[in-house]
Design goal:
This protein has helices at 26-32, 85-89, 129-137, and strands spanning 12-20, 40-50, 54-63, 74-77, 92-101. It is α+β, with helices and mostly antiparallel strands and 139 residues long.
Length: 139
């Protein structure tokens, strides 16, 4: 498994960046969850979110017992006990994700401007199926 985000179709791809919390660490989390921090060295985190509030968070670790000088053995560790979205994101003080359509070279472009739209009083609009399909074709 590549250390790269992946979903079924990857219609959107991009990057992510995060700053670790000032109040906890990945190492503190795995110790609280009963893992040996000398064996499992946390190097990152991953999450998957889907419809119906489905969330799965995990910690990426080097398994120092299975690693060799030639190759680090990286494991994706999830937990049987509940690991909520809130608990996951509390591991970070800032978390930024940028995704864009996979094709057309957007990964090499710059964002030229930021706009804030006042949509507080926007009327509710029903979107028909043809309009929804129009966007899908653009991929």
């Amino acid at each position: 498994m590549e250390m790269k985000a992946d979903v079924q179709y990857n219609d959107f791809v991009g990057t992510a960046a995060a700053d670790i919390s000032d109040h906890t660490t990945l190492k503190a989390l795995i110790i609280k969850r009963g893992l040996d921090a000398k064996r499992f060295e946390p190097i990152g985190a991953t999450f998957y979110h889907g419809y119906a509030k489905f969330f799965n968070g995990a910690i990426l670790c080097i398994d120092n017992e299975k690693s060799t000088p030639e190759k680090k053995h990286i494991v994706n560790i999830s937990f049987e006990a509940e690991f909520t979205q809130e608990q996951f994101f509390d591991l970070f003080k800032r978390f930024s994700v940028h995704i864009h359509k996979k094709f057309n070279g957007y990964e090499n472009m710059q964002i030229d401007e930021e706009l804030v739209v006042d949509d507080r009083d926007a009327p509710e609009v029903n979107i028909d199926e043809e309009t929804m399909r129009d966007e899908e074709v653009d991929f």
